Amino acid sequence: DGVAQTRAWEALEAPLVLIVRYDTVHIHRELASLALDGISARILSELATIALPVSWQAVAHEVWPDEDDLVALRRKWDTSLARLRKKLRDSRIRQDLVRADGNDNFEIFLRAGDRVEDQT
């Protein structure tokens, strides 16, 4: 029915609240919440606290400070970013929350009403 579809769409588009604590991130939205930890949380926390488009390398070096091999670092980044996006998708949180600009820069993409609470 059309009303149910509209309500489902509105819930998916509801504003997000991201509570970032570096090792954990909680994402709240009407009718849904997601708790992340580990690498996914660290990537989101870095992007949220920087709050500007930043190169994947800058974020990756913060998340994996002991990794000097650029190829290995990129592999870790790509794998971890894919896992993060899958977690977002599985929780029905928009995957464009972590947005690439096409120039190897990434950012948290906040829409009107979205907000970040930095508790790092």
Please compute the radius of gyration using only Cα atoms: 15 Å
Total DSSP E strands: 7
Structural class: alpha+beta
Helix amount: 40-55%
Your description of this structure?
- With 120 residues, the chain is α+β, with helices and mostly antiparallel strands.
- It has helices spanning 2-13, 38-50, 56-63, 70-90, and strands spanning 17-20, 24-29, 32-37, 54-55, 98-100, 105-108, 115-118.
- The strands form two sheets. The protein has a four-stranded mixed beta sheet, with helices on one face.
- Strand 1 and strand 2 form a beta hairpin.
- Helix 3 crosses helix 4.
- The protein starts with a helix and ends with a strand.
- 21% of the residues are buried.
- Mean pLDDT is 90; it is low at 6-10.
Short description:
The chain has 120 residues and is α+β, with helices and mostly antiparallel strands.
Topology:
Elements (H helix, E strand, L loop, with lengths): L1 H12 L3 E4 L3 E6 L2 E6 H13 L3 E2 H8 L6 H21 L7 E3 L4 E4 L6 E4 L2
Parallel strand pairs: 1-7
Antiparallel strand pairs: 1-2, 2-3, 4-6, 5-6
Task: Describe this protein with a few key phrases.
120 residues, alpha+beta, four-stranded mixed β-sheet, three-stranded antiparallel β-sheet, 4 helices
